[in-house]
Design a protein that fits this description.
The chain is built from seven helices and ten strands. By secondary structure, it is of the alpha/beta class. The protein has a single domain (about 1-205), classed as Rossmann fold (3-Layer(aba) Sandwich), CATH 3.40.50. Bound molecules: 2-amino-2-deoxy-6-O-phosphono-alpha-D-glucopyranose (GLP).
């Protein structure tokens, strides 16, 4: 794993954003794997500004998101559909038909997982996957204990994950208890991966990822099985490294 250390969140967003736009310009029909949460917001702002200033186009780009809450409609402001729309898609020239997220409001959730996994295969897989990391080492919503062989699946969210994400909701009671997430094996099929982390709250997770061994108890450690991973993280997140 290659590590790029930055001073702070702004520089992390700038460096990762720059790398990302270079990839998009050299491969205009790239398939990007997208993440939600606070961490990638700065990169999305970078992409929007670059699109406005430098006219980088997304007309042929496909985007495929990691995960979505179960039981929340796409129109709900807490859905990842809504997050992606507001924070990125509506500011770019990407075609809506080329943006994919799992449907957490599907009536048959098992079938939805299968559909999503097949969809990823059918569009030729993810060229570049953006990842954040949970404090417990989750990637996507793959909580500790998730099999490294997992494909897109339903996950029960840990209480700590629900607590961490409750900041986006009115109360923790509103945070869904389940989500659909790409599996670890799905993520590892991406050709290239950028993992982003910022802030002291991620320092323990990054120390564990970089220094410890590979274990299903710490999902992000699966990334050590991948040949092309770049960690872009700020000094606070890398404070034990
Ligand atoms: C969420 C998302 C993950 C994200 C992680 C960290 O639960 N499902 O994809 O990487 O938690 O979020 P944040 O960037 O807000 O710290």
């Amino acid at each position: 794993m290659k590590i790029i250390r930055t001073e702070n969140y702004e520089e992390m967003s700038l460096k990762a954003g720059l790398l990302l736009t270079e990839k998009i310009r050299s491969n205009p029909s790239i398939t990007l794997g997208m993440a939600t949460g606070s961490t990638p917001k700065g990169i999305y702002q970078y992409l929007i500004k670059d699109h406005q200033d430098n006219r980088t186009t997304y007309k042929q780009v496909k985007s495929i998101n990691l995960d979505e809450y179960i039981g929340i409609a796409p129109s709900n402001p807490n859905s990842y559909h809504y997050f992606m729309q507001k924070n990125l898609f509506e500011h770019l020239d990407i075609h809506e038909a080329n943006t994919y997220l799992p449907n957490g409001a599907a009536s048959n959730l098992e079938a939805e997982c299968e559909r999503y996994e097949k969809l990823i295969e059918d569009i030729g897989g993810v060229d570049l996957q953006i990842l954040g990391i949970g404090q417990n080492g989750h990637i996507g919503f793959n909580e500790p204990g998730t099999s490294f062989d997992s494909r897109t699946h339903i996950i029960n969210l840990e209480e700590d994950t629900r607590k961490a994400n409750s900041r986006f909701f009115n109360s923790i009671d509103e945070v869904p208890k389940q989500a659909i997430t790409m599996g670890i094996a799905t993520i590892l099929k991406s050709k290239e991966i950028f993992l982003l982390a910022s802030g002291e709250a991620k320092a323990d997770a990054l120390a564990r990822l970089i220094k410890d061994g590979i274990s299903e108890d710490f999902p992000a450690s699966a990334l050590k099985l991948h040949q092309n991973v770049t960690i872009v993280a700020d000094a606070d997140a890398l404070k034990y490294i």
